[in-house]
Structures are given as structure tokens and as C-alpha cells.
């Protein structure tokens, strides 16, 4: 046998990930054709808007909240804790940031900025805490609680933006623009690439990779995800682990919301997430497509960030609704889930060929 | 006249475990035929072959003299063979009627006819079922009767029951066994899979004893003089201890003390009813008993996986390095491994807080982990392509070896070994026994829970017999005698009431 089994497993996985994306786009061709548009032209503009050199900085900007959110999701998904609440945690992070920025507008920025960023994360973590406690102590299904918490968060934010924190001179439900001294510093002049993009790609990704792979904490998450009863047998404090993982997940989603406000919007708005592909939900696809591996997630968030931007270009240039991007994302999720199953089958076949018994 | 006959049935599972080897079995019309044997003797496998759930590797099946091949349970049901599995297959949220209706998929359905049939059947068999009540509201006994009804509606003439009384309590058992008798009087042929000797003796016309995948004997009930003869057939002839068991006599230093322990199972039934014992340093304390008498709950409570209702478990860590309690669980796959993770990780599964593998509290030392995993793999001769392979791709036997090897090689003060050699090949089993004996000589206290009486006799310094949740007797090694142990094992088996067949007179 020319290659080792591990390498064979990796090849299977890579081939499946690529065919997943391929299949999604192929299904997209059928759908675009069926509404009477030219799929080639549509995809041309999609890629122009996503991955052509001038589009790259904006794609990175889109990718940043996706990246932060999906790394947090990867942390909990490893343990098979299904946090669907990143969207709400993201909004809470954004709202907390805007409020604090308004309160601290006269404080020295070098002091206030890191505090605001930290509190944004803590806000997200706080929002993840009640579902985490319910899950860890009473076994209440986190899918339902985190999902419901999204609605609570978004309507709460909506209330705050329509009421107490509404900018009196704006026509829209949004806060006043925050003091430019508190904006996230731009790292590449002439673009909107801010320090949060750098932090996400250059600090959070390697840190998360190390943390999930080389620490006992990461390994315990894997064991819990593999079998909950085994985790108990392995002397793992499951209650504590579930809460810790959920707090990390919420923190990163809150952080994403904070940087979106400080770096891009410069105010809290009701459309902090793109309505057709909300970051909190799209992050689920990003994390799954990246096999819960932070390095791969950096790639997949860039890819899906590009799709979001590209779909807008596609809409402008080829009159195809932006919802198309949503359809492609949904198809990717479905094919990814199917490919997990296929991967298992193929791996078993590869093992059988070794005839170990 | 034979209702069914199995000839030279051999079943090899993928993974190489031979569950049945050249087994012959026949079932007469209208008899209750008990299939008796220890866990893992191959009883269920054999009957799953007869009922179409499994395909034999080789061998032939005859029904009413005609050779048949089953591709599915519904094939077998068409030939009149139905099986009531150990874990019932009704859908809890649906009503009894809906569940009965589900059993008839593929037939033309006539509600009125079904209702009359249900009524006829329940009258002749003398039980009532509430057709509109949801299954979750029924007792286990009632559910079982619904399962029977479902098979009878499908015109099954051969009924196979897999450990039907394991979920029932006293009076329900009697009622169930009476029902079996009356079914047989009505011409149904019945196979009763069981490991309870008294049950087999009470209700059956013939008894077939299986051991290690083979049929040891088929006896008419009248041929059986006493129950201990059946015990002997079930567990086999006594072998000379294979492991030299010349340990210095153990100390009287108690490592583990259990006081008045009361433990419930998942359904809230009391399974451990006041157990007290001490485990001394350097001894093997064997716990003998028929499966299901509270061993599982006792062990889970000691291992900290189940909260006792009452009582104390005192385990003092004397030595900070080896001061741990290792545990080889009987539920290997469900509890003992993280299936999606590698052989290396699974080799250190219970040591994520151990400084040897986790430095400064959180950083994994992969080279140390791999080193230890290599020791486990070579000690137990685990067959795996590499240490990185997820264990779920290994065969069942190799997964067992990883668990047993890990718990034996990890330094400990107390080791709970639950069925440590079940499912292992002879060589590995010997290796494990030898290792257990050596550990005890080094001062480790070993609690050995096994349904293999040979193993217990071979290794133990003392033997505690557990029956119906109580330790009924503790033998010293010198006074231990298989027949005596067998009779204590049966002491609390809970068939206090006489079985009376209720035969309706029409």
C-alpha cells in the first residue's frame, strides 16, 4: 500500500469537501436556469464580486464576523453541543458595544477601546450562559433555547434602537454614530480592513487551532462529542465543560458583533447581519464545511464571505436575487451533512481492505 | 412432528467472533423449549437466525419440514415465526391499536376483522388490553402482551422470547410463564431464551443448553434430576487453574469499604438492596451471580457513575501517584471508548488530568501518550493500522483489548474488572488473567465481577455471591465449591410463586 491510512482518510475528506461545493454550485446552475437566467453569466459576476483582486479586502471584511462566530461554533460543535444562538450573541455584542461607546465617548480611546472590545465579548458570553446552564444542569435541549434566545436578543435590540438609543436625527432605527476616536483602527490604508480582521485571522485562528488540538480542554470536548456517557466514565466534569465551551462560543460571537460595530458600521443598526445570510446562521455552515478545524474554517469563512459579496454583485449585474446565495449555502450544509455519512462509509471500506481480522 | 429445525448452523460475525458453530436445534409442535446458557453463549444469535433477523454463515433452516431461507424478519413471519426481542419494539407514543396495526404492514387491512381477532385472542388467552391507551402508559408486562398479540395477529405459530422475564418483577413473571404454558396448550410452539435455570425448569418441556456457541445438551424435562446439573452444563467442566495463583495471603488493610449500599436502576427499581463488604489490598474479590442481580448497578455506584440511594462507599487514596480506581466496564462500546477518537487518545481516556500526559494542567504531551498507547497495543496484541486510527473502525475484539489493556497498565490502587475476558480470544484472556493475578500480588485490590464462574474460581481469594441485590455469602478460596456457589446464586432468583397454567376450557 503506497500511502498510509491517515493520508487516505485525508484524501477522502478533501475530495468530499470539494465535491460538496461542486454539487451545490451544480444544483445552483439548475435553479438559475429554471428561472430563465444564464448561469454562466451569473457565476461570472458572483466570482468577480467575491474573489477578483479588488474584491478581496471586502471579502475579508465579510469573512471576519463569520470566522469569529464559526470558530466559537467549532468549539461547541466538537462536543456536539449545538449552539444555534450565535446570531443573538452577535447582536448582543454589537448592542453592548454601541451603548458603551456612547457612554465612554469622552474617555481616552487607548483605554476605552480594549475595554469596549472585551465587554462586547462578555455580552455575547452572557447571552450564551442561560442556555448553557439549562443544558448542563437539566439537560434541556440547547438547540431550542439558543434559537429562542436569538429572537429575544433581536427584538430587545430592536426595542432599544426604536426607543432609548435611537439617534434622534436618523430616519432609521439605529444609534448615533460613535466617536471616530473609538473606531477600530484601519490596518491597510485605502481599504476598510480594520484591526479586528487582523486579530481574527492572525491571532484567533492559530490560537484556536492550538487550543482545540493540543490541550486537554480540546480533547475533552472531543470525548464529550464522541459519547456523553464515555465522558462521564473518563472523569470529565461534563457540566463545567459544557458551560465553558458555550461561554467561549458566545464570547467570540459577541466579539464579532463588537468589531462589526467598531470597524464597519460605526453605529448599531438593525441590519448588523446581512438579512439574506445572517452571520450567526451562516457561521454554522462555515464551521461544518471547515470540519471544525480553525485553519480550514479560515478558508471556508473567506469562501462564504465571498459568496455573500458576490451574490450582491450578481444581483446588480445579472439581476439574480441575492437569495440565490442563501440557496447555495443551504445546499452546502445539506451536502456537507451527507458527506459526513459518505466519509464514514468510505473509511470503513478502506479499513476492510486492510483485513485486520 | 417438528415445527422447525436448524441444522449445522454456523454464524461468524464480521470481526471474527464465532457466535454459533455447527448448531443443531429442533422445536416440536406445541412445546415450550427453553434455550439455556450464559450470556454470550450464542442463544440470541441462534434465534435471530431462526426469526430472519440474521443470516447464518452456513447451515440450513427447515420449517414444517420445508427448507427455507429468510432475507428479513418479515420473511420469517410469513412462515409463521415471530420473535419478541429483549428490548421491546413498540412505539411508545402511539396507541396499542396503532402499534398492532403497524405490525400488519403489507397485509390488506380490515379494521373490523382485526378488532374481532384481537377480542377473540385476548379472551382465549385471558388478558385484557386497552386498545386506545398509549404504549408508554403500559407496564412492561402489558407491553409484552401487546407484542405477543401483534405476532399472533400476523398468524405466527412459532413464538420466540428473548429473556422475556428480565424486565418483569415477581408476580408478573408468574403471570407471564403461565401465559407461555397456555399458549403451548393451544398449539403454539415456543422458544424461551433464558439464563434463569428455575424458569426453564418450571415452564418448559425440553431444555437445550448452549455454551460458547455450541449446543451442550438437549434434555427432556424429566431427565433433569437437579438444577445444579444444569449449572454444570451451562458453565462447563472445571478446569485446573491456568494461572499460577500463588500469592502471599493478602493483608487486612481495606482499600475500599462499602456500607449498606442501596442503588436503583434507571427505571427506579431497587437493584442493590443493602450491600456491605471490604476490599483488601492485594486480593481478588470475586463477585459471582446470575446476570441482572444487581452487579451492574453495584459496580456503577462504586465507579461513581450512578448515585446510590443510601449507604457509603469509602475509597481512601493512600498513594497519590497510583491512588486511582481503574474500571473495566462490561459495556465496552457504550462506556469504555470514545469511538470517533484515535487509539492513542483512547489509551489514556481516563487520564486527562494526569501530569504524565497533561503538562501544567492543560497541555497534552503527545509523545508520552503515544508511548503509553504503544504499550497497550503490544501488551494486548491489538491489531490496528496505526495509533491514529479512530477506534470505531477496529473490530469489537480489538476495542475490548484496548480498554482492558489501558485499565490494567494504568497504575491503580483498586481495579474493578467487570467481565474482563468476555469476548476475548483464549490467548488474550489468559494474558488478562495473568496480569490481574500479578497486579494483586503487587498490592492492588481487585473487584472481579464475572459471569464466568471458572474465571472467578481461578483468580479470586474470596468469592462473594450476589443474588437479588444482596450478598448472600462470602466464601474463602479454600471453601469455595462450584456447586455450593451455584446454589447460592440461585437462592434469590425470585420464583417464589408456583406457576399455574391458566387454560381456558373452551
Describe the protein's architecture and organization.
The complex is a heterodimer of chains A (357) and B (506). Chain A has a domain at 57-283. Chain A has helices at 5-34, 39-51, 56-78, 86-103, 109-138, 142-162, 195-214, 216-226, 228-233, 238-265, 279-289, 294-318, 323-354. Chain A is built from 13 helices and no strands. In chain A, helix 3 crosses helix 12 (294-318), helix 4 (86-103) crosses helix 10 (238-265) and helix 4 (86-103) crosses helix 11 (279-289). Chain A is mostly helical and 357 residues long. Chain B is of the alpha/beta class. Chain B folds into 3 domains: 2-235, Rossmann fold (3-Layer(aba) Sandwich), CATH 3.40.50.300; 253-324 and 413-421 and 435-493, P-loop containing nucleotide triphosphate hydrolases (Rossmann fold), CATH 3.40.50.300; 336-410, no CATH class. Helix content of chain B is 32%, strand content 25%. Chain B has 16 helices and 21 strands. Chain B has helices at 43-50, 73-78, 96-102, 111-125, 140-153, 170-185, 197-203, 227-235, 295-302, 332-336, 343-347, 366-380, 396-409, 426-441, 453-459, 482-491; strands spanning 2-12, 18-28, 32-36, 58-63, 66-68, 81-84, 158-162, 189-194, 206-211, 214-220, 254-264, 270-280, 284-288, 310-315, 325-328, 358-359, 363-364, 414-418, 445-449, 462-467, 470-476. Chain B has a 6-stranded mixed beta sheet with strand order 6-7-8-3-9-10, sandwiched between helices. In chain B, strands 15-18-19-13-20-21 form a 6-stranded mixed beta sheet, covered by helices on one side. In chain B, strands 2-1-4-5 form a 4-stranded antiparallel beta sheet, with helices on one face. In chain B, 46% of the residues are buried. The model of chain B is unreliable at 493-506 (pLDDT under 50). Chain B: It comes from Candidatus Terraquivivens tikiterensis. Chain B: Pfam families: ABC_tran. Chain B: InterPro entries: AAA+_ATPase, ABC_carbohydrate_import_ATPase, ABC_transporter-like_ATP-bd, ABC_transporter-like_CS, P-loop_NTPase.
Amino acid at each position: 500500500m503506497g500511502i498510509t491510512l491517515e493520508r487516505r482518510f485525508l484524501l477522502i475528506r478533501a475530495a468530499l469537501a470539494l465535491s460538496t461545493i461542486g454539487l451545490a454550485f451544480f444544483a445552483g446552475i439548475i435553479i438559475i436556469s429554471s428561472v430563465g437566467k444564464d448561469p454562466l453569466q451569473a457565476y461570472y459576476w458572483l466570482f468577480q464580486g467575491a474573489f477578483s483582486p479588488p474584491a478581496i479586502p471586502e471579502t475579508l471584511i465579510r469573512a471576519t464576523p463569520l470566522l469569529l462566530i464559526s470558530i466559537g461554533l467549532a468549539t461547541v460543535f466538537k462536543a456536539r453541543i449545538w449552539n444555534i444562538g450565535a446570531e443573538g450573541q452577535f447582536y448582543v455584542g454589537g448592542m453592548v458595544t454601541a451603548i458603551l461607546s456612547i457612554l465612554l465617548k469622552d474617555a481616552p480611546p487607548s483605554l476605552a477601546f480594549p475595554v469596549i472590545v472585551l465587554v462586547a465579548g462578555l455580552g455575547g458570553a452572557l447571552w450564551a450562559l442561560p442556555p448553557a446552564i439549562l443544558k448542563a444542569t437539566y439537560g434541556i435541549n440547547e438547540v431550542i433555547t439558543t434559537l429562542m434566545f436569538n429572537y429575544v436578543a433581536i427584538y430587545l435590540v430592536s426595542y432599544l434602537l426604536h426607543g432609548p438609543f435611537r439617534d434622534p436625527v436618523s430616519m432609521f432605527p439605529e444609534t448615533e454614530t460613535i466617536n471616530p476616536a473609538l473606531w477600530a483602527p484601519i490596518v491597510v490604508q485605502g481599504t476598510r480592513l480594520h484591526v479586528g480582521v487582523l486579530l481574527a485571522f492572525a491571532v484567533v485562528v492559530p490560537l484556536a487551532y492550538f487550543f482545540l488540538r493540543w490541550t486537554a480542554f480540546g480533547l475533552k470536548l472531543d470525548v464529550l462529542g464522541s459519547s456523553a456517557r464515555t465522558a462521564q466514565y473518563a472523569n470529565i466534569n461534563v457540566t463545567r465543560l459544557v458551560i465553558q465551551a458555550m461561554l467561549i462560543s458566545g464570547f467570540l460571537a459577541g466579539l464579532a458583533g463588537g468589531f462589526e460595530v467598531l470597524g464597519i458600521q460605526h453605529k448599531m443598526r438593525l441590519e448588523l447581519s446581512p438579512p439574506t445570510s445572517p452571520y450567526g446562521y451562516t457561521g454554522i455552515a462555515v464551521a461544518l464545511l471547515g470540519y471544525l478545524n480553525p485553519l480550514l474554517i479560515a478558508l471556508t469563512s473567506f469562501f462564504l464571505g465571498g459568496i455573500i459579496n458576490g451574490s450582491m454583485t450578481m444581483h446588480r449585474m445579472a439581476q439574480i436575487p441575492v437569495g440565490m446565495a442563501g440557496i447555495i449555502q443551504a445546499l452546502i450544509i445539506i451536502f456537507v451533512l451527507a458527506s459526513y455519512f459518505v466519509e464514514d462509509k468510505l473509511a470503513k471500506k478502506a479499513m476492510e481492505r486492510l483485513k485486520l481480522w | 412432528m417438528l415445527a422447525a429445525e436448524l441444522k449445522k448452523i454456523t454464524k461468524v460475525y464480521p470481526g471474527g467472533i464465532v457466535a454459533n458453530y455447527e448448531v443443531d436445534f429442533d422445536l416440536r409442535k406445541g412445546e415450550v423449549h427453553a434455550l439455556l446458557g450464559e450470556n454470550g453463549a450464542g442463544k440470541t444469535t441462534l434465534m435471530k437466525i431462526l426469526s430472519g433477523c440474521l443470516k447464518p454463515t452456513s447451515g440450513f433452516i427447515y420449517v414444517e419440514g420445508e427448507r427455507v431461507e429468510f432475507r428479513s424478519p418479515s420473511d420469517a413471519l410469513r412462515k409463521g415465526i415471530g420473535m419478541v426481542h429483549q428490548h421491546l419494539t413498540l412505539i411508545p407514543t402511539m396507541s396499542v391499536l396503532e402499534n398492532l396495526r403497524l405490525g400488519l404492514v403489507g397485509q390488506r387491512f380490515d379494521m373490523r376483522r382485526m378488532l374481532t381477532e384481537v377480542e377473540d385472542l385476548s379472551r382465549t388467552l385471558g388478558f385484557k388490553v386497552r386498545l386506545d391507551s398509549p404504549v408508554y402508559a403500559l407496564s412492561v408486562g402489558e407491553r409484552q402482551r401487546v407484542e405477543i398479540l401483534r405476532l399472533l395477529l400476523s398468524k405466527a405459530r412459532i413464538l420466540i422470547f428473548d429473556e422475556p422475564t428480565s424486565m418483569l418483577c415477581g408476580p408478573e413473571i408468574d403471570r407471564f410463564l403461565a401465559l407461555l404454558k397456555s399458549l403451548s396448550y393451544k398449539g403454539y410452539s415456543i422458544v424461551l431464551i433464558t439464563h434463569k435455570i428455575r424458569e426453564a425448569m418450571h415452564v418448559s418441556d425440553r431444555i437445550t443448553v448452549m455454551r460458547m456457541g455450541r449446543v451442550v445438551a438437549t434434555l427432556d424435562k424429566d431427565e433433569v434430576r437437579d438444577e445444579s446439573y444444569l449449572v454444570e452444563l451451562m458453565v462447563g467442566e472445571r478446569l485446573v487453574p491456568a494461572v499460577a495463583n500463588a500469592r502471599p495471603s493478602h493483608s487486612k488493610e481495606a482499600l475500599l469499604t462499602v456500607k449498606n449500599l442501596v442503588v436503583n436502576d434507571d427505571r427506579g427499581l431497587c437493584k442493590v438492596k443493602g450491600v456491605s463488604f471490604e476490599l483488601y489490598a492485594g486480593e481478588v474479590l470475586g463477585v459471582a451471580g446470575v446476570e441482572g442481580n444487581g452487579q451492574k448497578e453495584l459496580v456503577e455506584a462504586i465507579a461513581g457513575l450512578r448515585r446510590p440511594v443510601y449507604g457509603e462507599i469509602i475509597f481512601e487514596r493512600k498513594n497519590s501517584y497510583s491512588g486511582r480506581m481503574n474500571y473495566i466496564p462490561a459495556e465496552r462500546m457504550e462506556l469504555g471508548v470514545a469511538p470517533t477518537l484515535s487509539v492513542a487518545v483512547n489509551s489514556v481516556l481516563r487520564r486527562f488530568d494526569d501530569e504524565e500526559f497533561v503538562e501544567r494542567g492543560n497541555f497534552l504531551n503527545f509523545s508520552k501518550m503515544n508511548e503509553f498507547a504503544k504499550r497497550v497495543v503490544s501488551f494486548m496484541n491489538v491489531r490496528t493500522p496505526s495509533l491514529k486510527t479512530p477506534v470505531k473502525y477496529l473490530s469489537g475484539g480489538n476495542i475490548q483489548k484496548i480498554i482492558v489493556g489501558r485499565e490494567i497498565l494504568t497504575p491503580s490502587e483498586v481495579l474493578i474488572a467487570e467481565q474482563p475476558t468476555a469476548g476475548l480470544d483464549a490467548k488474550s484472556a489468559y494474558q488478562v488473567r495473568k496480569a490481574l493475578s500479578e497486579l494483586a500480588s503487587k498490592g492492588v485490590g481487585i473487584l472481579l465481577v464475572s459471569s464466568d464462574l471458572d474465571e472467578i474460581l481461578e483468580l479470586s481469594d474470596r468469592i462473594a455471591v450476589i443474588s437479588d441485590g444482596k450478598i448472600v455469602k462470602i466464601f474463602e478460596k479454600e471453601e469455595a465449591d462450584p456447586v455450593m456457589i451455584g446454589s447460592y446464586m440461585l437462592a434469590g432468583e425470585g420464583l417464589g410463586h408456583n406457576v399455574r397454567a391458566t387454560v381456558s376450557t373452551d
